[in-house]
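Re-run with default settings, no changes from the original entry. Doing this only to confirm the output is reproducible before filing.
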Amino acid sequence: MIKLKPNHWLTIGLAVFAVISSIIFILLPWAEMNNYQAVNNSTMNYYKAQVDQVVSETLSADNLEPGRNLGTQEILVTLQEGPNAGQQVEILNYLNRTQNVEVRAGQTVIVCADEPDGVEPYYTVYSYYRNPAILGILLFFGALIILVGRGTGAKSLLGLAYTIFAVLFFLLQAIFHGLPSVPITLLTVTVTTVVSLLLMGGASKKSLAAILSTVAGLLLSTGVFAVFQGLLHISGYTMDEAESLLLVTQATGLDLGNLLLVSVLISSLGAVMDMSMSVASPLEEIHRLNPEHGFSQLVRSGMNIGRDTIGTMTNTLIMAFTGTALTTMLVLMGYGWSFQQLLNSNYLAMELAQSIASTTGVVLTVPVTSLIGAWMFTRWNWKGEKAPQKALSKGGKRKKRA
């Protein structure tokens, strides 16, 4: 009979859990509505097509960007997908500054087909066919992670894949169809945190401390953002996309008001998880090398470790939010928004609340992880029993055990 180590049982357990949860996600009643047809009755379809010939073109150089052309192309393409696959169609391809897909014979493109019932389809060039490039980028990323991280890198990729799967096939569907968004999001991030951290750290005190700290940090981020929402009078209804999502809300029961809160939970997950493991892992090593260190000493060590990481992590989060807002800020400058107007706008209030709440959760994860980790490493063993305290001699020194 083959004897398996605890980590082997953990791997098998996680694999079974991932397979079962994946099947559940796919078989849930809303899975059949993944195409969002509840509110989308468009006649637009997108097909892959091969460019056979550029019949004619009238192009001129764009004076704002060297190497870019503006104008029109008359092209012949053969559809490779859809009900008219194999049919050759003629398309007039317009090249402007916002939609500029200049094609050559032999290229593969994506065409948009407007196909109303009883009317001849109208075709336009939508974009370049990017599937191979996207696949290549993903393979490069995966290979790089495995090359540098080896086994740990492979486990982190599995955790990332499971997280993406859970978000796409469970969380988005649940929110879309009107389930309580905040509890569902908390459930999703908790499950994905457990899977990811157990994969990377195995069944250990370090992993358990990181899991508990991550959940605590996310709850703190959520609480802080809830306070900010009240102070700044913002919600999902103040988002730019709110008007479009109102149609979805009416059709499916989408909880639009809490979408901002949900976005903070999701955007904070990676950084909070990173901080919790960055503190818990060194604490475990310190305790292993210096088992005489007590609870208070480990807490101080955890705080010192966290302080060195807080600065860079805070900059990372704030700059990430700033980077996503860069284009919008340039637009506001171009339209001449005054400082008073910008300072009191919904846009700045939402961006500020999200970035500060996420960063606050990361910062507060440091003391939380220090306390939880120090308690686990010094006062709790893996079986859940209190660790025996070493007796002190009269001189204050611990007695040596026989």
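The chain is about 60% helix and 15% strand. The first strand starts at residue 44 and ends at 61.
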